[in-house]
Each structure stands twice: as structure tokens, then as C-alpha cells.
Amino acid sequence: MKTVAFVLYPGITALDLVGPLQVMSVLAAFDPSWNVVVAAETARPAPTDTPLGLVPSHTFDQLAGPAAPYAVIVPGGTEPTFAALADDRLLERIRTLAAGAQVIGSVCTGSLLLAAAGLLQGRRATTHWAVLDVLGRLGAVPVAERVVQDGPVVTAAGVSAGIDMALALAGRLAGEETARTVQLMIEYDPQPPYGPIDWAAVDRASLVPVMTGMLAAALADHPRLRERLTA
Amino acid sequence: MKTVAFVLYPGITALDLVGPLQVMSVLAAFDPSWNVVVAAETARPAPTDTPLGLVPSHTFDQLAGPAAPYAVIVPGGTEPTFAALADDRLLERIRTLAAGAQVIGSVCTGSLLLAAAGLLQGRRATTHWAVLDVLGRLGAVPVAERVVQDGPVVTAAGVSAGIDMALALAGRLAGEETARTVQLMIEYDPQPPYGPIDWAAVDRASLVPVMTGMLAAALADHPRLRERLTA
């Protein structure tokens, strides 16, 4: 039995976690060689950027030693994730989990945490479109693609991209037929009501500062890191 | 301030709730005339079909009277949702919330709960592809579309369809421009790694019995309802 562990910390974007978690949980229902867990520092409910609180299945300590996961996936978020870039305890937890894992994944700004933990040096990776530059300042090679694979690392673009990433990962881990069955069970046949994103029409000049403003505010107590990431 | 209330009950499919919840939470961040809550019978964490437990922001009692929501959205699931078709207390909660709402929504098998609550009589509605027939047996007019609108009722197909439904609803509630901004912030520009679902190739004969078997098992103590829905 191999374990896929999702990392939970306070303030995440709920869909960053739940999109790929749903994919992997359905995978585990069809292929019992996989086990899925959600791990956090404590067993207490963690707030999210929605009204929902999330309760993990495990603490990080419970995943040590022989229970070390095969794959670890880190979700992102806005201010709380940016603040976590200076959270040495969380970064050390991520490094420890990643050291024993064959697959290291992230969704959205979760890749900034992987980079801050030193796991993306020189690696191609992606993140939410509005902070691709920040990913570069943390030592990764930013790539504007929906899912980016580089060695053991697989990173997804913003929020909903975690579903695409997880289905691709399901195919790698359990084969394309199983991945297609998972896709069918979660009826992932997207029809965005306003069509795909029209990137040429995106008003980056007004939206990117929203994210970088959040980043600067979240790192107010860490001026050197703040300057490095927002200068 | 208008409230969008998501209904939480034990055993739901996590993504049914969190997909549209994320959309509506980002909407509320951009348009402060909207408020989003997650309501359940008790404040205790509810298990899901993933390793994650979910903690609501409100109890149903807290949404009574002047706090009654403008929109109510009911997520689905597998066995626990099917068992809930015989849960008169939950159905009464749904009826009460719906009675004061302008929008009544569901994701996946959540529409079976709306139908069991008597809210879909003669209305066009959808659900997870594998239980469309069951929806018809509950008095709705089943439609194999991703999102179906009929009067105040908007229903989504299986699991991930809740994201498409919520973006369409965001457009109705706050205008297309805001809905497009929400889509951009959650980077909903889907690229399923194996492409869209190839419905002509779906092996319904082997997968539909999985769902109807779950339904029959979940209603073992309610033989008349079980017979009505699975005969």
C-alpha cells in the first residue's frame, strides 16, 4: 500500500486541496493499492479562504518512518500561504515529507512553498498565473503551463488546475484506464459557462498587484524576504 | 447583504461542496453584497468520502428568520446521500431553507435530495450520469445536461459540474464580468489530461450497477423507497 499525503495548513484555498484530494480518493476506491491521507501539524480544524474548516486525518508526526508517503501534495492560498513562506516549521515538515517521497506535487501557490523549502532549485515549475514571477525569485524556472512535470516534481497552475494535475498523476500511478474511470466518476467533462479563459483579454495590470499586495502584507514582519520576492 | 448557504451533512462528496463553495467565496471577496455560509445540523466536523472532515460555519438553526438565505445549494455523494433520501429531518431542513430562497441549487446526487424533499416535481433537472433514472423516479424530469435551470432550481451533473454551475450562477447573481474575474482567480481553464469524457465509450453496463447497488444497500432499512427507486 502506497500513501498519497496532502499537506494541510491554516488558511489554504479549499479547492486547491479538495480538487486533487477528490481525484485521489476516488482512485483509492477503485485501486486498493493506494491510500490517501490529509496531514497537518495538529488535529484541530484548519480555517480556509471559505467559510469551511478542514479537519486532517493525520498529524505530520503520524506520517514519520514506515508511514512516510509515496507522494506529497501541497496546496496553496493567498495571504496565509504567502505568510507561510517564512514559516520554518512548516517548510521543514514539507522537506521531511518530500525527502522520502517519489512524487512531490503542488497546486497554485503551493509551489512557492516547495520553492521556499528549497525543493525547486533550477526546476521547471508553475503556479497561479499572477505570481509566476515570484516563483522565479524563489529559484525555480517558472513555466506558464497548466501542469508542469520535472523529475519527481509536478506542479499545477492556479486553484482548479489541481484537478487536471491529479488526473495526470492518477494516470502515472495507476494507468490511463483507471484515471479515465476516475474522471468519469467525478464527471469531469468541463463546460465553463463563459468559455475558456481569454488570456489575451486578461487585465494583468490591475489583478497582479492584488496578489503582490497580499504577498507584501503577509511578509510585513520579514522585510528581507518581502523585498526579495516583491522588488 | 444576501446569503448563499451550502448544506453540509455527513458523508458528502467533498468536491460537490467545495467546487461551488470556492466560486461563491471568491465572488463574495470581489462583491461584498454577497455572504457565503456552510450550514449543518450541528457544529461538529462532518466526515466526507475523502479523508477530510468538514466543519460548517453555521448550524441550520442559525439561518432561521431574518438570516434565511437567498440561495441554498445541496451537495451530493454516494451511500450517505442515498441513505439521506430517507432522512426526514434533513429533508425538512432543506424544504425550510428552500421555502425562503430565490435560488435552489444542487450538485451531483444532491438533486435526489431536492427531489425527495418534493422540490423538483415536474421540473427539469440533472444529476450524476449514473443515477439519472433515479431522479426521474423521484418525480423530476431528468435531463442529461451539465447544468439545468428550471425556474428557481439549478442542478448540476456529477461532482465537478458544480464548478460550472456555480460560475453560471455567479454570472446571474453578480454579472458576467464578475463571474469572469472569479473564473480567472481560480484559473478555471480546464485541460483534462485525457481529454473530455468520450460518452460513446462509457461502459454504463458495468458502472451504473455500482451506483444502484450502493443505493439499494443504503436504503436497506427502507424497502418501499428502495423498491421505488431501484425496481
Name some characteristics of this structure.
7-stranded mixed beta sheet, alpha/beta, Class_I_gatase-like (chains A, B), Transcriptional regulator GlxA family with amidase domain (chains A, B), globular, Rossmann fold, homodimer, INH-QAR (chains A, B), DJ-1/PfpI (chains A, B), 41% helix, 231 residues
Please tell me about this protein's structure.
2 copies of one chain form a homodimer. Chain A is an alpha/beta fold and 231 residues long. Chain A has a single domain (2-230), classed as Rossmann fold. Helix content of chain A is 41%, strand content 18%. Chain A is built from 9 helices and 11 strands. In chain A, the strands form 3 sheets. The first copy, chain A, has a 7-stranded mixed β-sheet, sandwiched between helices. In chain A, helix 5 (132-137) links the parallel strand 8 (124-125) and strand 9. In chain A, helix 1 packs parallel to helix 6 (161-174). Chain A is globular. The N and C termini of chain A lie far apart (46 Å). At the A-B interface, helix 1, strand 2, strand 4, helix 6 and helix 7 of A face helix 1, strand 2, strand 4, helix 6 and helix 7 of B.
In short:
Chains A, B: It holds the Pfam family DJ-1_PfpI. Two copies of one chain form a homodimer. The first copy, chain A, is α/β, with parallel strands linked by helices and 231 residues long.
Mean pLDDT of chain A: 96
Low-confidence parts of chain A lasting 5 or more residues at pLDDT below 50?
none
Number of domains of chain A: 1
The largest contact between protein chains, plus residue counts on each side, is: A-B, 58 and 58 residues
- Spell the H/E element sequence of chain A: EHEEEEEHHEHEHEEEHHHH
CATH superfamily of chain A: Class I glutamine amidotransferase (GATase) domain
Shape of chain A: globular
